[in-house]
Amino acid sequence: MDFNPNLQHVIATSGDDGYVRIWDTRSPSSALMSLHPHAHWVWSVRFHPVHDQLLLTGGSDASVVLSCAQSVSSEQQKEFRDDDEDEEEEEDFVEKLQDGQLERIDEHEDSV
């Protein structure tokens, strides 16, 4: 289990069913999101300390998976940039990551 560093009421849990679930502790009756990054037990889950839409998991299937949970994160979908106070304010849209698996490393010989 890990707490979201940017949203104090959001936690991520991992389980023996291969799922990672994200919960809002204010309303724990159902998960906000469920991800299935592993084929077997998920033994650890961690939020990125700054970009809370990124989750890193390790499991008994000998893999490490980087997943995205953009739809339940605190990250803003767009940034505003002001290069010079005298110039007009420009909007730069940051590409939004899709929820789900971003990267998988299967090169381990044993559980992670």
Question: Which helices and strands, and how do they pair?
Answer:
Blueprint: E1 2-3, E2 10-14, E3 20-24, E4 33-35, E5 42-47, E6 54-59, E7 64-68, E8 78-81, E9 90-93, E10 100-105
Antiparallel strand pairs: 1-2, 2-3, 3-4, 5-6, 6-7, 7-10, 8-9
Can you offer a commentary on this structure?
With 112 residues, the chain is mostly beta strands. The protein has one domain (2-74, 99-106): Beta Barrel (Thrombin, subunit H), CATH 2.40.10. The protein is built from no helices and ten strands. The chain has strands at 2-3, 10-14, 20-24, 33-35, 42-47, 54-59, 64-68, 78-81, 90-93, 100-105. The protein has a four-stranded antiparallel sheet with strand order 1-2-3-4, with no helix packed on it. It is globular. The protein starts with a strand and ends in a 7-residue tail after the last strand. The relative contact order is 0.21. Keywords: Repeat, WD repeat. Pfam families: Beta-prop_EIPR1.
Strand order of the largest sheet: 1-2-3-4
- Uncertain runs are 76-91
Number of domains: 1
> Which sequence of SSEs, written as H and E, runs from N to C?
EEEEEEEEEE
What is the overall number of helices?
0
Q: Do you know the CATH topology?
A: Thrombin, subunit H
Number of strands: 10
Strand content of the residues, in percent? 35-45%
Please identify the structural class as seen in this structure.
mainly beta
- Overall radius of gyration: 17 Å
CATH class membership: Mainly Beta
Please describe the biggest sheet, giving its number of strands, its sense, and whether it closes into a barrel: 4 strands, antiparallel
Protein name: EIPR1-like beta-propeller domain-containing protein
Region (Disordered): 73-112
Domain EIPR1-like beta-propeller: 1-66
WD repeats: 1-33
